[in-house]
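User: Some background: our group keeps a shared notebook of sequences we're curious about, and every so often someone picks one and asks for a predicted structure to add to the entry. Today it's my turn. The entry only has the sequence so far, pasted here. Could you supply the structure so I can complete it?
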Amino acid sequence: MRIVGALLVLALLGSAGLGRTPGDEQSTVAAVADGDTIELTSGARVRLVQIDTPELGGGECYSRAAARELRRLLPVGSPVRLEADPRLDRVDRYGRLLRYVRQRGINVNLELVRRGAATVWFYGGVRGRYASELLAAASRARRERRGLWGACRFTWNPYGPATTDAEVRSQPGACDGSYPGVCVPSPPPDLDCADIAASGFRVAGGDPHRFDGDRDGRGCE
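Assistant: Of course. Here's the predicted structure to add to the notebook entry:
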């Protein structure tokens, strides 16, 4: 009788979602569509809310690198917890779920911003529950030229005007010496030609990103 009672209590606690935030959902990653969108085994698509990454289909600077970063964080088959934000819409106009995605306790939305793989984007100016943390992470990533902040000639800035190439160059240590004609940060991450805006530039030294595949002294021809 005691065992039956204990099982009943556990069942009630489980149905109440003990230890979970209201609106949480459990699912599994089926694919990463781009730097801020994933597909689930259920068939649903999830747009990581309050962040933005360069468009993969348009060949924008750092778009492929951002998608690779998300794949590292969320490999296919990863169990994830989807967290809705009561301050924000639950679904966008394309039918995608708008969620924070957690994997092994990590807020992936926030982690992408920390790594410089995403910027902060408050749709309609509405700030969600992690707005302060996201803004602080973006500020530090931009200051340290992480990810897209160091790789892209023009980058959207959540605090004001776009970052220009001249502003990037003014940061000490922002540009790798192997590419004297352009400003490309040293790895990590490892960048491809599609991740940067420049092409046909001079390559000298070690070429850590391997932009000069034919070793003719010119990168991303």
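Suggested note for the entry: Residues 4-22, 157-168 have pLDDT under 50 and may be disordered. Helices lie at 2-15, 63-73, 108-114, 131-143, 148-151, 165-169.
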